[in-house]
Amino acid sequence: MTTTLKPIWWEGSSKAELLAFPEDAVQDAGYQLHRLQEGNEPQDWKPLKSLGKGITGVYEIRIWEDSTTFRIAYVTKFKGSVTVLHCWQKTTQATAQADKATIVSRYKEAKERLK
């Protein structure tokens, strides 16, 4: 039985951001994104809330490598694809305002392009 994989849409520089992660984190990220492509949930994820009015359905994959945390913000509701909005290294408990602004901006761009 073959599974049709959802395509991945890389918004902005999100793919380059992901590829800048350490090799182990990149491999783990690839596995988690593949799970999404198959229609499954990633192993460690949560909804991203408080992004602003009209910004819905954004989730983050959490990747733990040693004592460092990496995040991938994504949406799965645009045209049956996995849309990666932003990839970053998390350095504090809360998501930094600059990362939130990037996610919101790319969400709006993706929504317009992929609707």
Write a concise keyword list for the protein shown above.
115 residues; alpha+beta; YaeB-like fold; 5-stranded mixed beta sheet
Number of domains: 1
Output the CATH class name: Alpha Beta
Structural class: alpha+beta
DSSP strand count: 5
Any low-confidence stretches, pLDDT <50, length ≥5? none
Give your account of this protein's structure.
With 115 residues, the protein is an alpha+beta fold. The protein has one domain: YaeB-like fold (2-Layer Sandwich), CATH 3.30.2310. It contains three helices and five strands. The protein has helices spanning 14-19, 23-37, 97-114; strands at residues 8-10, 45-47, 58-65, 68-75, 82-90. The chain is globular.
In a few lines, what is going on in this structure?
The chain has 115 residues and is an alpha+beta fold.
Detail the topology: elements first, then pairings.
Layout: E1 8-10, H1 14-19, H2 23-37, E2 45-47, E3 58-65, E4 68-75, E5 82-90, H3 97-114
Parallel strand pairs: 1-5
Antiparallel strand pairs: 2-3, 3-4, 4-5
